[in-house]
Each structure stands twice: as structure tokens, then as C-alpha cells.
Amino acid sequence: MANEIEPLGVEKDVFLRVEHDAAGNITYIPDTSSTCGDAGRRLTYDFHNRLIEVYNTTDITAGEPVWQRTVSYSYDALNRRVEKNDLDTGTDVVYIYDGLAGHSLGDGSWQCIEEREDDGGTWEARRQYVYGGRYIDEPLIFDKDYDSDGICTDFNYGGSRGAHRYYYAQQVNFNVTAMVVDDGDGSVTFIEWAEYDPYGAATVTIADGQSATGNPYLFQGRRLDTETGLYYFRNRYYSPELGRFLQRDPMGYVDGMGLYEFGRSSPAAVTDALGRDLVGSVGTLEKIADTIEKFNDMRKTAENVVNTAKDVGQVGLGLHDIASGEYEDAEAALETVKLATDVAELIVPMPGDYLSEGAKAAADAGKAIVSKKIACDECQRLRDKSVLHVLYDDECKEIGKYWDLLDGTRCQSKGDALSVLLKSEFTYKRCH
Questions:
Q1: I need a surface site. Which of 83, 108, 293, 399 has the fewest CB within 10 A?
Q2: Domain region containing 343
Q3: Is the pTM of this model over 0.70?
């Protein structure tokens, strides 16, 4: 069984174990809050590996523990959960979806817009939702029927309110952090707020004098089933206690080698609205890491180019003087004109942070050199007629074999020689 886990503890090893069926679905989860280690949940699945029933027991240590079914779920042909039967509360709930096919995160719509409960054989609306357009799990408004008349919008602000309208506050990764209620006079009242551990276990705090909203949407904007403590991530269920999904990834290894792993073990960095596809600003964590690496490489490259540009700009300005007639190194001047111009074109389009003074100097140098048509024409004229030589020990050296008159060190390249020309006082003459 790939990526399956078993023991959750040492002291209660017999009881704190997770069990799986042949398809890899987790079928038993211990209740770690039980001080005696004798409570747990048994889960059953259909042939599509969808959770359909949950049983609880408080006497797992008995020879024949008694299992009590607490909830069952039903699904439609599009794999959406459409009904819940809560045996603990005796409540049957159906989920109504918006019906718009072709949502960007899956086939058919996955946004529940209304919940109805069985009221003596009639399905009455109890909760309605409105969503934003940025993300599939961005609930904005929660309308709740309080007087059980099947109407979620009879707010009646001036009298006895039959319904309440709540607004959501979410973090950047769509964790619901707070709920406020519309007071009907242009103001809102703070009702409750939620805090999370890294893997989604929520602690909801009710404001003084307020009642719980009954909001089901919490971690990453997904629905928490209070009867099981599991989040419904559409194609799979997720346990914040275990920090992993109950079923294997239906897409296989597309998001990594951990078939039960949630968010590549970085739930704050990515979301997984469908329980099968990691979603983030750039997709998977690998893409995020690649982007960061590429950005760092680009930054290093930009810094190197800026430094090079600064040097080229200084050389270009110096050789512009040479090409203008003060000196006669025609070939070197022409090459530097081209180099400074190329660097200028490379640097100028880059973001402002990288357009440093050095880069700007290079760009200005390139433009200044190119604009001096007279100097370029002079360079062309002198190219085949004259070569600059440096006089050292009464010997003339051909271009590219310069000597530094300050310390007698021979330059190894024309680039070194150009730097020497700019930084040193030297004696020169033309050799014919």
C-alpha cells in the first residue's frame, strides 16, 4: 500500500492505528482525544472510493465493539456530494449546486449555492451562499434561515428577524478568518473568528453575547463536517488531525510521490480545491521553486550585467575620446562602440531596480558614441593607416601587446590593455 501509515503512537500502539482497505482508503481512525484510547471511527467507501458511511464506537477495546452509524453521504453522476443523513441530529440535508458546467477547476460546477433540510417531507431552504469570482472556494455571503420557514432572505431588520446575512473574511490562501453579520443600517457586527494550525485544525471563537453562525466553510474555504471532523475536498476527504487525505490521489503521482500528502506538506503555500490538483499562484510547488530559482539566477545575471555595463560605459567613454582624435586607436574604438551599444540595448528595457547608475552610464555611453558620426568616420579612415603603439624601453609593440608603464606588468589581453590606457599615465607615439 503506497504511502500508507499505521501507528500514531507508542503508548497506545494497539489502539492508535490507522487501517486501510485493499484500495488504500483509510477505514479506521482512532479518536486521539479519548483518554482511554477506546474510541474511534470506522469509514466505508463505494466502488468509486467515495466515503459513504461513518461509524463511531467508544469501546474499541471490547472483544466485539459496538459500532453506531453516525452519518451517510450520497453523490451524483458528476461525483458531487448531494445528500447527507446525520443520524446523530436526525437531519437530512441536500446540497444544490449552481449547475453551470465547465468550471475552470473541474467538469461541472462544484459550488454549493443552497442547502435544504427535510421538514416533514418537504425540502426547505436553510442556508444559501454567494461566491466571488477569483477562486472556486471564495464564499462572500452566507444567508441563514432562523425561523425555519424556508426563506433565507426575510431579514426584517426593523422587527423579528427570520434570517441573518453574514459576510466572510478570508486570508490569501482562502482560510475563513472571521464572520460578521449585517445589521441592516449600513453597519456590521463581529460574530466569530477562526484560527488554524498549519494543517487546518480550526479553533472557532464566538464573540461575547453572540451565537455561532453555523458556517461550514473554514480551512482553504472548504466545508468542515463537524460530525466527523473531516474536510470535504470534493474528490477526497481530508483529516486535519492526520494532516493527510483519506484516499489516494485519483490523479496518481502528478503532484508528487505522496498519494495521501496534502499540499506537498506545505498547506500554507498551495490549495487543492478538488482534492486532486494543487493550485497556487504558479501551480505546483515545483513550479514555485523553479520560479524562485530562475528569479535568483536572473537577479545575479542582472547584477553581473550592470557591473559589466558600468565598466563598458567607462571604457566606451574613454575610447570615444580616443576615436575623436585625441588618440588614434581606431580599431579598439570601433569595437567598444559596438559593445557599449549592445549593452545599452540590453540594460535599458530591464526593470527599474536593475537600471542602476552603472547601467545608465553604459546606456548613455553607447548612445554618445553612436551619435558621434564624425568620430566613427575618423575611425574608419584611420583603421588601415594607423596603429597606436606604446613606447616602452624604446621598443614599439603592436596593438594588443601593451605594457603598463607603472609597474612593468604585461597585459594579457586587449581588454586589460584598454583598462591600462584609461587608468595609467602613459607615453605613446605612432609607429609607421
A1: 293
A2: 281-386
A3: no
